[in-house]
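Dear U.,

For the methods section draft, I wanted the exact inputs and outputs in one place so we can describe them consistently. I've listed the two proteins in the order they'll appear in the manuscript figures. Please don't edit the token lines directly; just add comments below if something needs changing.

First protein:
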Amino acid sequence: MTSSSAHIHYDVVSVQEADPLIADSLLAELPAMNAAADTRELAELLITLSGRARALCAHRLPPPVQGLAVMRDLGIVLGSIKRHGTEPLDVVPELTPLLLALGRQTDLVPRDTVQHYTSWNPPGARRRTYTDDEQETWLQDSVSHVFPDLSASLSISETLVDLDPRDTRFAANARLLARTVHSMLEAIDSVTARVSPIFFAQEMRPYFEEITVDGTEYLGPAAAQVPLWLVDLCLWASDRNADAYGSFLSESLQYALPDWRDFHGRHHHRPSLVTRLSNLMMADPRRTSPALIESAKAVGDLLRTLKTFRGRHITIAKKAYAEDVRLYENGSGGAPIALLQEILDLTRENENLIRSRHRPAPRAAGAA
């Protein structure tokens, strides 16, 4: 994929508007098929859409924007078939080469991701859903609404990485980053208020199971695929991480957009902002740089925002994955509750470190 075509992932409206498989009316019936667990109708729907997709791509793949829409519409049926107990490509094995080709064309995994299910999903009457429960639309909207802010947060993080924390622009950019990350708090509050943990755990979670494509298992759409973890990477996780979260990030990388993967490649070996700030504060015990102190305060506030989000996330996750509620041990992104706790603990630990560093230095004995 060229650098110019990489921008198709942010051409959200064009992907939403695309209906290359003429699937609007067919997919409107999907919630009823799922509610009835009508596996025969689901299989026929997949066979129909598979036939249309292969005809569309018989001579050459459509433009990438349409390729994303094709994967979106195939993906929600693939997830539905799996939810009712059948490996979907056992129904249409001839679809495998096309999924692989669409994955290569759009530089993504060969199945649908959280972007297909949320941001690239049409709004209104054309919205693709597994169920007809409005709680599902609230779940989709909570992710769609954070996509622009979190995408922008990566540009801000990149600016911060290149700035000296003693530069007066550093604190302003850190506060700007905190505002973009704050959208995650709004999203988790929306989910907490409108989506019951039982609905997510028992109705929605089964649709996000992994499917096998050409011998490899790929996870379904998962909120964990949004790029908040790349903010963590720049902020503290590049050099202050623990093994479990580090392994999870490495395994999740394949579900990221191409420029998010490039971002990871540029930054995962660089010193984190927390490390750079901490070292500078240690080297300046008399706190002679007001700009450095403001930078530390701003990063501390940013970490507090992330800590609050992590705390609320783990609260709702514990309810959805309680023993008497859950159907699965792990979240749709593959993370167990213990990993969420580890991320919360690491965020808190780094916040405490930064706040301890920018406290006023003790006065020397005898000072006026």
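Second protein (the one for the lower panel):
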Amino acid sequence: MVAPSGLPARAAKDVEKYLLDDEDAVVATRRHWAVLVVPTVKFLPVFLAGGWLLVLDPENRVTSTIGMLVVLAALAVYALRIGEWWMRHFIVSRRRVLLTSGVVVRTVTLLPLRRITDLTWKETLFGQLLGYGTFRFESAGQQQALSEITFLPHAGALYRQVSGLLFTSDWGAASGGDDEGNPEPASGGPVATGGRRDTEPIPGLPLREP
């Protein structure tokens, strides 16, 4: 197993934990920090309001208690958002796409590369300014849980890397292999132990006359 160089410790741990021994990570990244902008905008007014109630009248237990509860709740929700951002990683190997998520309960969603039929890359105006984009995967079969991944950093470079895996004939790419990304067996019939094909005569045995 090989992980990209310079990988954060948490992402390297996910690569080591969720990829197979003979499976190398081509891409492993956390989502862009811009994903925290909306939670921060929601957190600040609630936190400030709670702090205002807390210090409004220290002698009033009702307002102080309510203020303390609001501050603690706001901090807990915001910490959970940050933790989720910290723990979620987008990983791509030559076999599949994985998205790890969850702080208390870890979840791994995967999509074999060979099932991906189309890849859409969307970059909004803010995405162009801040450097993030959205991937949308179209796949054969039923609706996949891993169909859209937002706030991916350096989306242009990621798009070229993932496209290189999808549209080349390298081993394990989307063009060949089974659903798990394993390479297809060589044509010419099943191969027995030692490289001998089942249709070949066994060495040392006399040939039958027709």
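Candidate sentences for the figure legend, describing the second protein: Helices lie at 9-18, 37-56, 61-87, 125-130, 155-166. Residues 53 and 62 are 9 Å apart (CA to CA).

Thanks,
Y.
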